[in-house]
Amino acid sequence: MSGAGGFGQRHAPTLPPVPPALLESPRRRGSRAFTVVLTIALLIGSAVMALVLLASNAPGALVIGVVLAVLPVGPVIAAFLWLDRYEPEPVRLLALAFAWGAVVATAGALVLQAADQFVLGTPDTWSAAIVAPLTEELFKGLFVVLLVWSRRQAIDGVLDGLVYAGLVGVGFAFTENILYLGAAYVGGEGNGPGGLGSAVGVFVVRGIFSPFAHPLFTAFIGVGVGYAVVSRSATRWLAPLVGYALAVAAHAAWNGSAFFGGGQFFLLTYVFAMVPAFLVVVGFAVWARKREAAMLTRSLGDAAARGFLGQAEVPWLVRLPARRACRTYARAVGGRRAEQVMKEYQQQAVELGFLHDRYLRGTAPDDFAARGTAMVQRMQALRPYVTYPPAAGGIR
User: Fold this and answer.
1) Angle between helices 320-360 and 275-305 (to 10 degrees)
2) Structural domain of 139
3) Taking Cα atoms as reference points, which of 19, 28, 80 lies closest to residue 347?
4) Each residue of 325-351: pLDDT tens digit?
5) Is residue 3 part of a domain?
6) Tens of pLDDT, residues 259-276
7) Number of domains in the chain
């Protein structure tokens, strides 16, 4: 591996040309069953939601709903991606998580809620406070369970579970907001006088004061599934069920405060329950990310001691500012391809760190040896085209 000569080096090293084929990352094996199930679910969910939206027969309201509903999506997604900086999840899977929440979870929950009202005749208030949380969290959490069942390597811990669950929640909130905002714009039947003013009023409540509501609820399921993946406890399989119960309870408390007692408890629930719960989850997520940094330092240090990579590389692969500095320097001395090589090398090293940590803790998956070997071989192929900044002290 080419490296800088030391802190006083003035001339950038000359990197060998990067073979284009080297930048083609090996395809990860996926589950055909996962792809088939997801495709069918997305097609059915899209058809159901298209019928629901077309049945409103209010194209103007639909446009207003989409425009306002999309505004909080970017910032909320950015918050979850910020948590996912050590081992960024595949964009395709993140997009599928959002799509599942937007069409599959919403459609499935609507069908079950409609069936409940048709068969059991549950009053609207009880349906919103009890049936909606049960059905919505069931379908939202199903994506995370399906993902870990079919692609076990996709989730390495609680933070991964939280990110995927959060993206599902963002997608669900997006579609639900379109329905609520469109109904507010049309007005009538408890939706106010209608018009843009009513829609903006609903947007302030749902898009500004509580954009993290659905992601927050489903995050409990994601944490439970992530814990079940990495835990050695005999009771780890209860964690997803506990996460689901907490998600339903939080969701029910939130909905119930708006529908019972004339809504007089809504503000109190928001201030004394919703906000503290949000802060707790945020604090937990930040703590989990810091814990990942310590874990990667420990596991990659042990991997380096076994000869899988250089010991001096570890801090440059773990510390986020150092990782950015490496990519910037690689681009400066070798162009875009050198930067891509550095990013790929960092990604492989971090994935190796997560896998090696599970090996050290005795929770490694059955295929850990094959996966670890493939990661090490990939790193060895990339290594001759990687260079570190002068501040790295001449890593060779």
Assistant:
1) 80
2) 32-264
3) 28
4) 999 999 998 889 899 999 999 999 999
5) no
6) 776 666 777 888 888 888
7) 2
